[in-house]
Amino acid sequence: MAPLDDVEAWYRDRGLRATLIGFRDFNGWTQAEAAAWYGCAARTWRRYELGERPIPLPLLLRIRDYLKRYPNGAKGRRRRLAAV
After folding, report:
1. Which own/partner pairs from 3-11 qualify as long-range (CB within 8 Å, at least 24 positions apart)?
2. Which of 60, 75, 61, 63 is nearest to 28 (CA)?
3. What pLDDT was estimated at residue 52?
4. Which of 46, 48, 58, 75 is most buried, taking the most CB atoms under 10 A from its CB?
5. For position 49, which CATH number holds?
6. Residue 83 and residue 73 in contact, taking contact as beta carbons nearer than 8 Å
7. Domain count, the chain
8. pTM here?
9. 18, 81 in Cβ contact below 8 A?
10. Separation between Cα atoms, residue 53 and residue 70, nearest integer Å
11. What are phi and psi of 57, to 5 degrees?
């Protein structure tokens, strides 16, 4: 059995990954489009979503600011964040 710290980290990371996937789906973007919005390679975005790389705090802050500015998504229509 994994130590408690590892279990907590796994659940925390899973929630952040769901945030990335939900944000991308909310806007109707592909991984390549989301990566272009953030300014990273599509492969890097994919690795964030798969949990192969830690999600940087600046990315999460940028998503927060984006959702404050565009609450209806990139295309201007109200959509709910997808549950992952």
Report:
1. none
2. 75
3. 87
4. 48
5. 1.10.260
6. no
7. 1
8. 0.70
9. no
10. 27
11. -55, -40
Helix, strand and coil content of the chain, in percent to the nearest 5, comes to 65, 0, 35
Q: For residue 26, what are its two tokens?
A: 């909310």
Give the Cα separation of 17 and 54 in Å (integer).
9
Residue 76 resides in a domain: no
Q: What confidence tens digit (pLDDT) does each residue in 24-74 have?
A: 988 899 999 999 999 999 999 999 998 888 888 899 899 989 888 887 776
Q: Which residue has the tokens 């964030």?
A: 48
Structure tokens at 20: 């990335």
Predicted pLDDT at 15? 78
Determine, yes or no, domain membership for 38: yes
Q: Give domain status of residue 83, yes or no.
A: no
pLDDT higher than threshold 80 for residue 17: yes
